[in-house]
Design a protein that fits this description.
single chain, 280 residues, alpha+beta, 7-stranded mixed sheet, 6-stranded mixed sheet, 4 helices
């Protein structure tokens, strides 16, 4: 599953290193070598793109290598042999520990990009001391990296589970229901609201399953299971293209990506034979 490697140590202060892992993002895409999907090295790759380590933000240490990140303007073009690649397209192609680090780095680079100036008084922001934050030297406003919590719920009804295809899904796959929390809501309240809004059902017996950072662009997916209580499936046409119950007699549809918690949630509760489960 997409996650930070267990041996990773976060850092808030830049460090010197002869061969850092440098994550460079442009419009949400990661700069990599085209031949092997490796990161640009500090000796050739970064200078080739006009980049210096002084403009990078610290991410942490992994396997004794300093990890850092930065963003570049949309106008910057990759040099020969390099490309800016969407993180989603690297699923299954880049080593999972490195992909997990990239998912953390992209959120920090986006935070740095969108907090160059104070949102209150428009003065240039400065990195705070001792914490991951920007602080305005003029008015004192503090800005931390943004995290947007979202709930995910797999609804069970006897030996069936409910899956849906979302209208805006880039893949059109069936998955569990999901949605962002609103201001003032608990996760449980968001589940009841989203389920009613999206498919017109009531649920009960909510059980926590797990969570996962999801960097598109800065979500925290919090997954649950729930039991069907009442109602008939009535999809909200503006959000749900199709929703239906899947049981032991059904062949599992193409699952979500293997690095996602949605895949883990579905595989843990698929009602059919285990031989039908395909990990993406």
């Amino acid at each position: 599953m997409l996650q930070t490697p267990s041996e990773f140590v976060p850092l808030m202060t830049a460090q010197g290193h002869p061969d850092p892992l440098a994550f460079v993002f442009r419009s949400g895409k990661l700069l990599v070598r085209e031949d092997d999907l490796s990161l640009p090295d500090a000796r050739l790759g970064l200078p080739l793109h006009g980049l210096e380590l002084a403009q990078f933000h610290p991410v942490g240490l992994w396997q004794e290598r300093y990890c850092c990140t930065t963003w570049v303007d949309a106008e910057l073009q990759p040099q020969a042999g390099f490309a800016f690649v969407p993180l989603r397209s690297l699923f299954g192609s880049m080593d999972e520990p490195l992909l997990g680090l990239a998912s953390r780095a992209i959120q920090l680079s986006e935070w740095a990009r969108t907090h160059r100036f104070c949102g209150h008084c428009a003065n240039p922001m400065q990195l705070a001391t001792g914490e991951r934050a920007f602080k305005c030297p003029a008015c004192g406003m503090v800005a931390y990296p943004r995290i947007s919590p979202a709930m995910m719920v797999l609804i069970k009804k006897d030996d069936h589970i409910l899956l849906a295809r979302h209208v805006v899904s880039p893949t059109g796959r069936f998955s569990a229901l999901a949605g962002f929390l609103e201001a003032g809501e608990s996760i449980e309240e968001a589940i009841h609201r989203e389920v009613m809004e999206e498919v017109g059902l009531r649920v009960t017996n909510l059980q926590y399953f797990g969570s996962q950072s999801w960097p598109f662009p800065h979500s925290l997916m919090i997954a649950f299971t729930a039991e069907y209580a009442s109602g008939e499936i009535t999809p909200d046409a503006s959000e749900i293209a199709e929703a239906r119950w899947f049981g032991p007699e059904d062949v599992q549809p193409e699952p979500p990506p293997g690095v996602s918690i949605s895949n883990r949630l579905l595989n843990a509760h698929w009602p059919g034979p285990r031989s039908q489960v395909v990990v993406g």
